[in-house]
Amino acid sequence: MVDVKKLAAEILGVGESRVRISPEALDRLEEVTTKADVRALIKEGLIYAEYARGVSRGRWREYHRKRKLGRRRGVGSRRGSKYARLDPKETWVRKVRALRRYLNSLKRRGLIDTKTWRELYLQVKGGRFDSVSSLRAYLISNNIIKQQR
Questions:
Q1: 3-class SS at 58?
Q2: How far apart, in Å, are the Cα atoms of 33 and each of 38, 122, 133?
Q3: Mean pLDDT rounded to a whole number for the chain
Q4: 36: in domain
Q5: pLDDT, position 146
Q6: Distance between CA atoms of 110 and 89, rounded to whole angstroms?
């Protein structure tokens, strides 16, 4: 006997597991001997290929619907380092504000004059310093201020 499923899979261009044979065609399967016979059954719609199954988006939709409502956003659900999810602009603003605060405190305490303060302020604005500690290291290495305790 000819393996009808195998022939149909070849003709339809799918795997054997996706080939379906309708119950009405079962009595006619004994008569099938060639590919032409199988093609005829396919044309009649008695043999057909099932749709390929994809990956469901249902779980993703549910998860994102909940996140829109503010669920699943707690401390235990967060990934990455403490600052990994911050907006780059927010990071910049935090850094520059800290640097400017430090510069203003130096000026207020009389450790730098107005001219030096202005130069350093513009360097901060230009992104020269990564942090307050890098600014402090720069000031000490260039003898602008003495090392503080």
A1: helix
A2: 8, 88, 85
A3: 92
A4: yes
A5: 77
A6: 32
| Size of the chain, expressed as the number of residues it contains | 149
Domain-embedded: residue 65: no
Taking the CA of residue 108 as centre, how many other CA atoms within 13 Å lie in the half-sphere pointing to its CB?
Answer: 6
Question: Where residue 14 sits, what CATH number does that domain have?
Answer: 1.10.1650.10
Domain that holds residue 130: 88-141
Give the count of domains, the chain: 2
For residue 149, name the pLDDT band (cuts at 50, 70, 90): low
Given a cut of 90, is residue 46 above it in pLDDT? Answer: yes
Q: Residue 98: give its domain's CATH number.
A: 1.10.1200.60
Give 118-135 pLDDT, tens digit per residue. Answer: 999 999 999 999 999 999
Rounded to a whole number of angstroms, the CA Rg of the chain reads: 37
What is the SS3 assignment for 22? coil
DSSP 98-132: HHHHHHHHHHHTTSS-HHHHHHHHHHHHTT--SSH
